[in-house]
Amino acid sequence: MKLIKTATVAAALLLAGSAAPAAAAQTTAPATTHTAAPARCSADQLKASLGRIDAGAGRRTAQVHLANVSSRTCWLRGYPGLVLFDASGDVLRTRPRRAPGTVKKVTLRPGGRAKLSLTWGTVPTGAERTCPSAAELMLMLPDDFAYRSIHARFGTICDQGRVNFGPISA
Questions:
Q1: CA terminus-to-terminus distance, the chain
Q2: What is the mean pLDDT of the segment spanning 113-128?
């Protein structure tokens, strides 16, 4: 209350053409800035890209990189949703399987990056004769309906579209 009164008195004196008393200037508290805690990352804050695809023994492994392209700090936590598409834009059968892992909150400053690892098979299993080729991955952010798309040559996705992936990590 004293701060408001002091500011009001100083303003009244300035309007009247007088200088504010020195005592009034000394009782004014320094300005403080309060920054809000970072919010969860939204899709428009992130750019998604696919790292190098490593091949071996009928499996493919790649990392998805999520970069904060905004000017605000934000965070992600958990497992995203995944949907695969072919080159024509048709949805492919996608069976995402969460790999065990520690779920941690990942804070992304502007320019910061997070990642998650994907693994899928390239050899037909069971009754499969051929496997579809994926050209796009839709990545839905954890606990959200927003998504980022990655256009890349994933190659064939076998085992009825099974994709193993871990939680988002730093």
A1: 46
A2: 94
Distance CA 135, CA 108 (A): 28
pTM (2 decimals)? 0.75
Domain annotation for the chain: domains and CATH numbers: 1-32 (no CATH), 39-165 (2.60.40)
Q: Which residue has the tokens 């390239």?
A: 122
Q: State the pLDDT at residue 19.
A: 38
pLDDT of residue 37: 85
Give the C-alpha separation, 83 to 127, whole Å. Answer: 22
| Average pLDDT score, the chain | 83
Ramachandran category for residue 142: left, alpha or beta (phi over 0 → left; psi -120 to 50 → alpha)? beta
Is residue 103 pLDDT above 70, yes or no? yes
Burial of 161 (0-12, 13-18, 19+ CB in 10 A): buried
CB of 74 closer than 8 Å to CB of 68: yes
